[in-house]
Design a protein that fits this description.
By secondary structure, the chain is α+β, with helices and mostly antiparallel strands. It is built from 11 helices and 23 strands. The longest helix is centred in the C-terminal third of the chain and has 24 residues.
Length: 448
């Protein structure tokens, strides 16, 4: 384990968990890599009080809040009021010195505050002015989320800051631009800022909202009852204010003849990173990890190495943490981990599965079968849906995923959790099904 230390930023560490033993001729090496940042702006899961900072103290940051103001936000009328109150609560959570703006999203993107293509700097006066401007928000128009994201990108790019973050709220489907338009906007914004996305009510598309958060390395969730928006927005902003280091990448070096099969985040959520690799020199690639505060995340790596004889060993991969810069330079964060391969004729050693690898393999499968089961249910394949969701119940029970098990129990009647025997419920509340789909990728941390 190696640690990076510098004043005013978190210390990063890397721990590798694996069974390095392979049978003669074996090729597949699996490892779980835990990346931990400590000593940043948060303590545990709670951020330091936002107004205890002096202007300029803490990391420089900019945040744009994108609030859905389409016509559907007026049904019921309390939804728009809750959105205004939630945005005001988020503004109150901004620490002094943070640059910020509020955008009203319809089929257009209108700057509510401060306007004229700029960002305000958070302080008592600007927070109050922003809240006054929010009172004028009203519903009307369509939904074109890509337009909102591009406007947020332009605003965030106007500030010379370390952390750039967006918070996006929608209550409907992205009906006023094509899926290709939204994808193009996400491609353009990826790597430029991170973004948390929330769906309020039940008339939005889960895969759109989770896709936005995934592409922009943020979080996604449902707020089924608009009354819960203020608490959720406050927590999101507190977390954003706790970020200390942006644009961290996991750099994976592999020896000649080795191939990276996959790289995925497996805690606190499952997130596929394999396709996001950017080449970083001979036999090395970078995988984006986004912004970090005081937190820990787990990643599952799988590398295929050239087969070897009993008694041989090799370095299968070297993991390090870096911050690549646009000018081509790289800041090395010092933390490094080694993944090894050792060939043995000890059957017990070579067939043992590392507990961390086994746990997260199950968690990734759990997320996958929930999505597959819900998709099959939507198209009317009830037998297929029953089989997939039954497997999900079995995996959730075996891994101690109590929260996921509770969500599954609102969609299926559990006959026997251990065997995955279930019956689909005849009537399922839409909010319950959407909550299960949105939160299916959340995982339980393995006990190390």
């Amino acid at each position: 384990m190696a640690i990076f230390s510098k004043s005013n930023v978190p210390q990063f560490s890397v721990d590798v968990y694996q069974n390095e033993y392979l049978p003669e001729g074996g090729r597949e090496v699996n490892a779980v890599v835990t990346v931990t940042a400590t000593g940043g702006g948060t303590i545990g899961s709670a951020v330091a009080a936002p107004h205890l900072y002096s202007p300029g103290e803490g990391p420089s940051a900019a945040v744009v809040l994108m609030v859905d103001c389409s016509g559907s936000m007026d049904y019921p009328p309390t939804k728009m009021r809750n959105a205004r109150d939630a945005t005001a609560a988020a503004v109150d959570t901004l620490r002094d010195g943070v640059h910020f703006a509020v955008v009203a999203g319809t089929h257009l993107a209108r700057e509510v505050y401060p306007g004229e293509g700029g960002l305000a700097v958070a302080g008592p006066d600007t927070r109050e002015q922003a809240k006054q401007a929010l009172r004028k928000l009203s519903a009307g128009g369509g939904t074109a989320i890509g337009t909102w994201l591009r406007r947020a990108d332009r605003l965030l790019a106007s500030a010379d800051v370390a952390i750039r973050h967006g918070i996006l709220l929608t209550d409907g489907r992205n009906e006023h631009e094509s899926p290709e338009d939204l994808k193009a906007a996400l491609d353009a914004c990826a790597g430029r800022f991170t973004c948390d996305a929330r769906g309020v009510g039940t008339d939005w598309e889960v895969k759109e909202v989770t896709g936005i958060a995934s592409a922009l390395l943020g979080t996604a969730d449902i707020v089924a009852d608009p009354a819960g928006l203020a608490a959720d927005f406050t927590q999101m902003m507190e977390t954003a204010m706790g970020k200390e280091v942006a644009d961290v990448s996991l750099r994976l070096w592999t020896p000649a003849g080795a191939t990276v099969t996959f790289v995925k985040q497996v805690a606190p959520t499952v997130e596929e990173l394999t396709g996001r690799r950017t080449e970083a020199g001979p036999r090395a690639g970078d995988y984006p990890l986004g912004s970090w505060g005081d937190e820990s995340r787990d990643y599952h790596l799988c590398v295929e190495v050239p087969p070897a004889a009993v008694g041989q060993e090799m370095l299968a991969a070297r993991v390090s943490l870096v911050i690549p810069h646009s000018d081509g330079s790289v800041q090395n964060l010092g933390a490094q981990g080694l993944v090894r391969a050792v060939w043995t004729d000890d059957l017990a050693a070579s067939t043992s599965i590392n507990p961390q690898v086994a746990h997260y393999t199950g968690q990734a499968e759990l997320a996958e079968v929930i999505q597959e089961g819900l998709d099959l249910r939507k198209v009317g394949d009830m037998d297929g849906a029953t089989a997939k969701l039954g497997r999900a119940v079995q995996l959730a029970s075996a891994s101690g995923s109590a929260d996921t098990a509770k969500l599954l129990a609102k969609v299926v009647d559990v006959v026997d959790a251990a065997t995955g025997t279930v019956r689909l419920k005849a009537k399922v509340e839409e909010a319950d099904e959407m909550t299960l789909e949105t939160r299916s990728t959340k995982t339980v941390r393995v006990k190390k």
